[in-house]
Every structure is written in structure tokens, then in C-alpha cells.
């Protein structure tokens, strides 16, 4: 069973479960508007740099959304799109507060 931490709190997940689903299952608050469909960006997390190479690259839609919400932030991912497995044992994440981007 893969285990990860979000904001320092340890969570045990089932293989194939998303970070968002695991957090919801154990009652850890992680924002979501689209209920885990990867469309809102509310469940953004900051991934510890040493784990980035272990994650699957973001799909096109996730990459586009992350680039819009936080241009240049290469350590951000959507918790709903990170599927957990044993190779991610010890994954460290920090929740990123939802902010509204305004036009210049």
C-alpha cells in the first residue's frame, strides 16, 4: 500500500487511487470544484522535487491548465491526476491554495 504525505500528514492509499481520492477517503481537506475530473485546478499540489521524475508526465489538458494557473511552476501537479503506486512510496506533497488569476 503506497503511503504519501500531504502537508505533513501521512496517508495510506490503495494502488491506482488518486491523491485526491485518498485524501477525501480519510477526511483530509483538499479543495476540488470539478470533483476530480482535472478541469478546475483546485486540487493543485506542490510535489517534492525528488519525486517529479517518478510521476507520469502531465497529460495535455493537465499541463495546459497548470501552465495557465501557475506559469513556470514545474513542481505543481493536480492531485486528482496523480495515481498512486508502490514506486511513489513516501511521496511528499504540499497543498497549493486556490487563487484567482486576474488580467493585467
Task: Summarize this structure briefly.
By secondary structure, the protein is α+β, with helices and mostly antiparallel strands. It has helices at residues 19-26, 60-69, and strands spanning 3-6, 9-12, 44-47, 76-78, 91-95.
Describe the structure.
With 104 residues, the chain is of the alpha+beta class. The protein has one domain: Ubiquitin-like (UB roll) (Roll), CATH 3.10.20. It contains two helices and five strands, in the order ββαβαββ. A five-stranded mixed beta sheet has the order 2-1-5-3-4. The longest helix is centred in the middle third of the chain and has 10 residues. The protein starts with a strand and ends in a 9-residue tail after the last strand.
Average of per-residue pLDDT values? 93
CATH topology: Ubiquitin-like (UB roll)
> How many helices does DSSP assign?
2
Quantity of strands, as a count? 5
Which regions contain 5 or more consecutive residues with pLDDT less than 50?
none
What is the total number of structural domains? 1
Residue share in helices? 10-25%
Shape: globular
Question: Measured on Cα atoms, how large is the radius of gyration?
Answer: 13 Å
Just give the CATH class.
Alpha Beta
What composes the largest sheet?
Answer: 5 strands, mixed
CATH architecture annotation? Roll
